[in-house]
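Sequence only, no structure available. Ideas?
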Amino acid sequence: MVEQQEASEDAVMTRIGQAVMLLHGGDREEARNRFGLLWSELGADGDGLHRCTLAHYMADTQDDPGDELAWDLRALTAAEGLRGERPAEHRDSLAVQALYPSLHLNLAADYLKLQRPDAARIHLRQARDAADALEAGGPAGQGAPGPYSGYDGGVRAAIERLEERMRGV
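Reply:
I predicted one. Tokens follow.
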């Protein structure tokens, strides 16, 4: 029974990954359609990591900044829900911890688009704090060759770019 559950969870992440490939390939509409179908299938009680990941990418398919913000807030809510559901050492909890810098960065960018710089600054600070926590030995920092490697480096660079942009606001 556990193996069947793990296989079905892998199938959901595979489907999310396929839609992400469509998104990155430029087919935002088809990606949005697939994410929407998956979101309906998961429902409000679906796996938190799946909901977080799906909402995180669904936000990127939105044309309206308010809709983008709503999906990014859903992603953060799903991530925060995992904190109480699972022990800190659980693999999904570690994956979500590694997403926090990006989740807050996206919210900061959303608020900036909506001309809410104070809210943007709050989330940008939270993105920086979450990235610093990972570098200090959190899950993404374990075994990494340096503070600006791979995913961490890309998120940190994006945080710095948004900070520079906001200095001009």
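Residues 40 and 46 are 10 Å apart (CA to CA).
Hope that gets you unstuck.
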